[in-house]
Amino acid sequence: MADNDAAENAENPTPATPGWFDISTPDSARTKEFYREMFGWQINSLDETYALVSSDGGAPAGGIGQAGPDSPYRGFVAFFPVEDVETALARAEKLGGTTALAPTGTPDGRIAAFTDPDGNTIGLMSP
Predict the structure, then answer these.
(1) Which of 1, 11, 63, 97 has its CA 20 to 30 A from that of 25?
(2) With contact defined as beta carbons under 8 Å apart, do 44 and 54 qualify?
């Protein structure tokens, strides 16, 4: 990483706290029931493929989705807030990451995901 990139990231660090989580699974019905029983989460199904997860009637903190053959990832993915998903995704690729989910719009902003050099999938989110 170039020294100016390191200095910029030190001045404007990305929070180490995820802003969202996503569980992508081949059996979302089973997974929703598992986490409802495990943690007492409230599950609000938006459609057959995706449900929002919250607790104590609060705002959703994540989601559970039905993974299909063309899903960009499976398993648990933490999404970290960044100023701009395209810029952050380009930085991840420059550092050896690989795009798993190209930047896409959602009702709440933009998301993207990449795999790091060890194969871990990490999500990005911006307003």
Answers:
(1) 97
(2) yes
Q: How far apart are CA 5 and CA 106, in angstroms?
A: 29
pLDDT tens-digit map of 55-90: 988 899 999 999 999 999 999 999 999 999 999 999
pTM listed for this prediction = 0.85
The one-letter code for the residue type at 1 is: M
Query: CB-hemisphere CA count at 13 Å for 79?
Result: 26
Other beta carbons within 10 angstroms of residue 41's beta carbon come to: 20
Q: Distance between CA 23 and CA 97 in Å, rounded?
A: 21
HEC string for 12-66? CCCCCCCCEEEEEECCHHHHHHHHHHHHCCEEEECCCCEEEEECCCCCCCEEEEE
End-to-end CA distance of the chain: 26
